[in-house]
Structures are given as structure tokens and as C-alpha cells.
Write a structure and sequence with these properties.
- The protein has 13 helices and four strands.
- The protein is α+β, with helices and mostly antiparallel strands and 263 residues long.
- It has two domains: 122 residues, no CATH class; 105 residues, no CATH class.
- A four-stranded antiparallel β-sheet has the order 1-2-3-4, with helices on one face.
- A hairpin with a 6-residue loop joins strand 3 and strand 4.
- Helix 10 packs across helix 12.
């Protein structure tokens, strides 16, 4: 899709009464934008974007309060781990190691498990936010906000600069995960065993996901307070993007919007 086609899609989207809900993910070399049905990874070097269909968990999973959280987390990794995904083999191994982190944490002495969990999360964030990721992370948020406020065309031309902060950012999830994990470890009522840290970690992921999704649905003062630590943390995990970096994200927005409307 060349720039003329991108601008045509963006202009049409600005006048649309409804658009698919967008999400995204920034990487050192580009930006992934997703809808419920499609994803696109737009490259910083101008290379051919990668794209594909988003996996859909079984309908019954969407109705199960705790299982749907883990399913949503797994689906969010499709642009990286799926067929023709943006991550290389080495990066996929790192992501797999991060997902399996609760297992080695089980071997850490109980008194140090909280520190180990924080260390794993900080290390993962540092790895994910390397290179140009901080600016592209801001570009991802700006492009999604431009779609939500119907200012995509103006944002492409630099006449609008929507916020680089987002209530739905994964940083907000990470900021919630640490206190939820610490709380669950202290109130865990099941008899302790070798696998207790694994069960606590899985419970923390599911509970945090439910809290995060609920806070996004009901943006009351309470919901905003819940998300406030993540918004503060985004001052560290995002940087002001350049216009060209914003356009990288907007190209991915155009691809998924065009695919979603045609399919």
C-alpha cells in the first residue's frame, strides 16, 4: 500500500461513524497494529509490511472470566509469534522464556520471590523497549488515538498530535501485575507446594487481566485511579515520536482498517 492509498484509507476512516477497536505493539524496527480480526507490522525501514489474521479463541473461552484473560494475553502475541510474525527466532525464544519465567521463580527462596518477579518484569520491559521502541511506542499510541478521535489524516500531515499516552497500554497491565502478584502471594490460601509460585503467577496474570479490562470498560474515577500508575510509567516507556515514526504506525492502521472493511 503506497502513501496515496494509505491517505485514501485514513481519510475514509475519519468520516466513518464506527471503526474497529485498535490495539498495538511497538518494537525496535516497527509498529504492529491489530483489530480483532487482522494485524499488520509496519517497518521503520520502509520494508514490505507483514500482515495476517488474528487467531480467535473458542467462543466458550470468551465467556469464562479467568480463562478469557489468559486467552487475550496469548492472542496479543500473534503479531510476534504467529506465522510470518515480526519476531525473529531469537526473539521468539526470549518471549518463550519470559512466558515460562514462573517456573524458575519457583526455585527462588520464598523470601526473595517478590524481588525475583519484579526483576523479571523489569528485565522484560527493558528488552522490549530497546532501541527506537520508546518513540515507536509513542507513535503507536498516537496513531490509535488519531483513529479514535477521527484525526488520522491530520495526524499524517502533522496538523494534529494526539496523546502519546494510552489507557489501554500494556504498560498499565505490567504496573498492575506487580502489586497483584505481591498481594496474592501473601493471601494465598492453598497449602504450599513446590508449584505454588507457578499457581500464584498464573492467578496474578488472570486477575490482573480482569482488573485491567474492567478499568478500561468503566473509565470512572476509580478506573482511572487503577490505571494511574501505568500512565505515570508510560512517561518512561514512551518518547515523543517524529512525524515519520508516527507515519510508520499510521501505515499499519491503514492496512488493518482496509482489511477489516473488505473482509
Amino acid at each position: 500500500m503506497d502513501d496515496a492509498a494509505v491517505l485514501e484509507v485514513l481519510a475514509r476512516a475519519d468520516s466513518s461513524p464506527s471503526l474497529p477497536r485498535l490495539g498495538g505493539m511497538a518494537r525496535p524496527d516497527g509498529v504492529a497494529i491489530v483489530t480483532e480480526r487482522f494485524w499488520c507490522f509496519s517497518r521503520l525501514d520502509g520494508g514490505v509490511p507483514a500482515s495476517g489474521r488474528m487467531p480467535r479463541p473458542p467462543a466458550v473461552v470468551d465467556r469464562l472470566p479467568l480463562a478469557r484473560g489468559l486467552a487475550k494475553l496469548a492472542v496479543s502475541l500473534a503479531p510476534l509469534l504467529g506465522h510470518r510474525g515480526a519476531a525473529g527466532r531469537g526473539e521468539r525464544l526470549v518471549l518463550l522464556a519470559a512466558l515460562l519465567a514462573p517456573l524458575p521463580i519457583a526455585l527462588v527462596p520464598a523470601a526473595l520471590r517478590a524481588e525475583a518477579l519484579v526483576g523479571v518484569i523489569v528485565a522484560l520491559l527493558a528488552w522490549m523497549l530497546r532501541g527506537a521502541t520508546l518513540r515507536l511506542h509513542g507513535a503507536e499510541h498516537r496513531a490509535i488515538a488519531a483513529a479514535e478521535t477521527r484525526r488520522l489524516f491530520d495526524t499524517w500531515h502533522g496538523r494534529a498530535r494526539p496523546s502519546r499516552f494510552s489507557l489501554r497500554c500494556g504498560t498499565n497491565f505490567a504496573a498492575l501485575l506487580v502489586p497483584v502478584s505481591l498481594l496474592l502471594e501473601r493471601v494465598w490460601f492453598v497449602p504450599s507446594s513446590t508449584l505454588t509460585p507457578l499457581f500464584v503467577s498464573l492467578a496474578a496474570l488472570t486477575v490482573t487481566m480482569e482488573i485491567w479490562l474492567a478499568a478500561q470498560r468503566w473509565l470512572s474515577p476509580v478506573g482511572r485511579i487503577v490505571l494511574l500508575p501505568g500512565l505515570v510509567l508510560q512517561r518512561l516507556t514512551t518518547r515523543e515520536p517524529s512525524l515519520e515514526e508516527t507515519r510508520v504506525a499510521l501505515r499499519a492502521v491503514a492496512v488493518v482498517l482496509a482489511a477489516d472493511r473488505v473482509a
